[in-house]
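haha ok so turns out i had the wrong file open the whole time. this is the CORRECT one, sorry everyone. sequence first:
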Amino acid sequence: MSVISRLACSLGRRDEIPNQELARDLAARKDKAGIREIAENLWNKDKNIQADCIKVLYETGYLEPKLIADYAEEFVKLLRSRNNRLAWGGMIALAEVAKVNPGAVFQHLDEIKKAKETGSVITVDNAVATLAWTASANARYNQAIFPYLLKHLSGCRPKEVPQHSEKTLPAVNSANKTDFIKVLEKRSEDLSGSGLSRVKKVIKQAASL
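then structure:
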């Protein structure tokens, strides 16, 4: 039985529950054939199938990122899509891939940065996570990526600072934490309330590294 028949749109559903259930099943069974079929249908002519397939893939990635790591190239292609859902879905998937196969993501830094500069709020949020997880892999990746993340944190809108500083944390280490803390202390001047509390917590976490 084709896994496509279990997608929300195939079942005439408008909610995401069937897609989440399918992702949990694929992850639990480590069903590589099923995941391959889902990945192949990212390019289906039916936009509803495309949207459901990227949802299933990144939901699977949340549970078992290794199961979607082979499809990094496909996710990068989605970043160029005019369909916003596919573009940000691809970036969410890449953030999961970066945790287990950062090398596959590092090859596409320019495309990820470009998508971040031009993408939606969700694309930007997940681009920061993708870059941070990639930077956390080794010193070479960190040196290539961390200055870019700091520049982003220095210039992004105040309301984005709490979430983006949290998403940058995986890339912070004993060698770069001082620069990171300096940027956040400067940005804290623009913040108040819960946003300021979140950033103070990030500063504390970074200081302890």
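The two ends are 50 Å apart (CA to CA).
again sry for the mixup
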